[in-house]
Automatic annotation (TrEMBL):
HAMAP family: QueF_type1. Residues 1-14 have a biased composition (Polar residues). Belongs to the GTP cyclohydrolase I family. QueF type 1 subfamily. Transmembrane segments: none annotated. GO terms for biological process: tRNA queuosine(34) biosynthetic process. Substrate binds at V79, E80, S81, H98, E99. This is NADPH-dependent 7-cyano-7-deazaguanine reductase. Catalyzes the NADPH-dependent reduction of 7-cyano-7-deazaguanine (preQ0) to 7-aminomethyl-7-deazaguanine (preQ1). One of its GO terms (molecular function) is preQ1 synthase activity. NCBIfam families: QueF-II. It comes from Methylobacterium variabile. Gene3D superfamilies: 3.30.1130.10. Its main location: cytoplasm. InterPro entries: GTP-CH-I_C/QueF, NADPH_dep_7-cyano-7-deazaG_red, QueF, QueF_type1.
C-alpha cells in the first residue's frame, strides 16, 4: 500500500455523497471524503464497524476476511460514510497482509481527519488455523470520552 495520504477537498461538489460513484479498483485509487464536524467543541466517539471486510493474501491470492471496528474522537472533521464504504470495499481485490491492511486504514483515516483519537481493531478470521488480530491507535483517548468494548469476542469460531 502506498503512503499517499492526500486529503480530498470538502466542497459539496467534490464529495461522492449524493451522486453515482464507481467502485475504486484499489485502496490507492479510492477517494476518502471528509465533512465538517457539527460539534467540534464536544468530545464524543464515532464508531464504524465493517463485519464483512475482505482483502487478498498477497502470497496465495486467497481471500482473507475480517471484522473491522474503527472508533474515533473527531476534531474538525468527520469521515463521510459513503466514501469510507467504497474505500473499504476497494480492498477486495487488493493483496496485503492483515497488519498492512489494518494499520494502513488507521493511518489513512488519521491523516485525513486529524482526529483527537483513533483506534482500529482488525479481527481476522483464521487461515491456516491461526487468527491474526491487529490493533492500532493514535495515542491516549480523551479522559471525557467513553470508549465501549469493540464487541468482537475473543476467537471462538467468530460469527
Amino acid at each position: 500500500m502506498t503512503q499517499d495520504l492526500t486529503q480530498h477537498a470538502t466542497t459539496p461538489g467534490s464529495l461522492q455523497l449524493g451522486r453515482a460513484s464507481a467502485q475504486p479498483r484499489s485502496p490507492d485509487e479510492a477517494q476518502l471524503d471528509r465533512v465538517p464536524n457539527p460539534h467540534p467543541d464536544t468530545d464524543y466517539c464515532a464508531r464504524f464497524t465493517a463485519p464483512e471486510f475482505t482483502s487478498l493474501c498477497p502470497v496465495t491470492g486467497q481471500p482473507d476476511f475480517a471484522i473491522l471496528v474503527i472508533d474515533y474522537v473527531p476534531d474538525q472533521w468527520l469521515v463521510e460514510s459513503k466514501s469510507l464504504k467504497l474505500y473499504l470495499h476497494s480492498f477486495r481485490d487488493h493483496g496485503a497482509f492483515h497488519e498492512d491492511c489494518t494499520v494502513g486504514i488507521g493511518r489513512r483515516l488519521t491523516a485525513l481527519l486529524e482526529p483527537r483519537y483513533l483506534r482500529i481493531g482488525g479481527y481476522w478470521y483464521p487461515r491456516g488455523g491461526i487468527p491474526i488480530d491487529v490493533f492500532w491507535q493514535t495515542g491516549t483517548p480523551p479522559a471525557s470520552v467513553w470508549l465501549p468494548d469493540q464487541g468482537v469476542p475473543p476467537y471462538r469460531a467468530r460469527g
